[in-house]
Amino acid sequence: MKRNPTPRAGAPRRAPLTRDAIAEAALAQIDAHGLEVFSMRRLGAALGVEAMALYHHFRGKGPLLDAVMERLLDEVEIAPRGSLPPLERLRRAMVSYRNLALTHPQAFILLVYRRFNTERTFQLYEQILEMFADAGFESPLAARFFRTLGYFVNGAGMADIASRAQQPDATPVKLEQYSDREKYPRVAAVAPHLRVNNLDAIFTFGLDSIFEAMKRAAAPARRTGR
Amino acid sequence: MKRNPTPRAGAPRRAPLTRDAIAEAALAQIDAHGLEVFSMRRLGAALGVEAMALYHHFRGKGPLLDAVMERLLDEVEIAPRGSLPPLERLRRAMVSYRNLALTHPQAFILLVYRRFNTERTFQLYEQILEMFADAGFESPLAARFFRTLGYFVNGAGMADIASRAQQPDATPVKLEQYSDREKYPRVAAVAPHLRVNNLDAIFTFGLDSIFEAMKRAAAPARRTGR
DNA sequence: ACCTGAACACCGTTCAAGT
DNA sequence: ACCTGAACACCGTTCAAGT
């Protein structure tokens, strides 16, 4: 059997490599098999190329992972300015960011420890901080809540991933110990409220707590009495 | 030159390996050189032993890293029950936990993605949840704030580490871009408030916001008016 | 310009063997 | 019981060479 006929004579039998195509394939590999086993050689094989060909487009594995991280940032949905009240826009952006932990559980950690490696992060920060300004926050207060929200959404993403899947190379433990009422009675009592299908509601709860604090801080003059 | 004389005839020229000694040396290696370059072979060399000797005490690298993580958990300071009001005890425990990101920046991430691999974590959770119960929180509400605090302290630890040190294998970027007022004016405006020596104050601010929400939720009946 | 082949200096882990 | 030596199947990255 001949291989698939090419549309035009002389066309290459596969699309030439580009930075985008490589980063896209890398994210697909990480989503499918995990960051632990991701390697330049495996990625090359998946692209039908020797690993060394990738070095023509990226200086190394680190910069390639940074490009993968940028693809994640591209998936954060930001509502158009003016389409919603500023704090609601901000809230939805935070929800969208945390959703990356659900859609890309294996890759999400790249955001956590590589986000300051690239300029792309500052584009997102600029948009977020614009929302703070639109909501009337001065820089010192914006900086504090910006950071607090960032801590929360990154921590939530990582924790939800950790709750959903134990590491493959973990110390083997018996899960039933954790619901052992004798040994960990408090843990046993809250465990039913921490089931995986409750994690969305818990995230929303925590996010609301922070937004309520923001609303109070933004409008201290409106408090009843003094 | 002869090697150091041993205290007793027939005593081994180095202390025999134990799980504790290995885990301690592993943490020291990670603190000194980073998790990226940490390897069984390097650890063996640091202990004056072949890497394969470590497999007599640990089933593999994963379980060894779990033991290192447990050592970090051991450093969390929990005030004796009754020595402080429950919420103040809880607050100090959170501060102590986040401080691990400062004392062990290279190892802290083990807590983030390996903490559910071992039973030791549930000892700490039991203590934390006891504080919630002592403060009068019912399980559903305790679960929500327990999780919210966890998100926040883990996210804060990771973010503070990322802010303090760029990854060694990062895409090279020019740092001055980030304070470019033309390109990222909002980022430039808040940047002075996000300097490394302000991170402690920002952490305290965010923690206070969450604790204020907890105090309101714990005592809804005490609100003036209705 | 883009990719390959061979090589270098590493990994984690297994197995059989030593003491 | 505790450790070693050799081996296996991998890594990321370099370099010179091919087209």
Could you tell me the radius of gyration of chain A in angstroms?
23 Å
Order of helices and strands of chain A: HHHHHHHHH
Would you give the CATH topology of the largest domain in chain A? Tetracycline Repressor, domain 2
**Uncertain spans of chain A:** 1-13, 222-226
SSE class of chain A:
mainly alpha
CATH architecture group name of the largest domain in chain A: Orthogonal Bundle
The CATH class label of the largest domain in chain A is Mainly Alpha
Q: Which superfamily, in CATH terms, is the homologous superfamily of the largest domain in chain A?
A: Tetracycline Repressor, domain 2
Oligomer: homodimer
Mean pLDDT of chain A: 88
Task: Give the gist of this structure.
Chain A is built from nine helices and no strands. By secondary structure, the first copy, chain A, is an all-alpha fold.
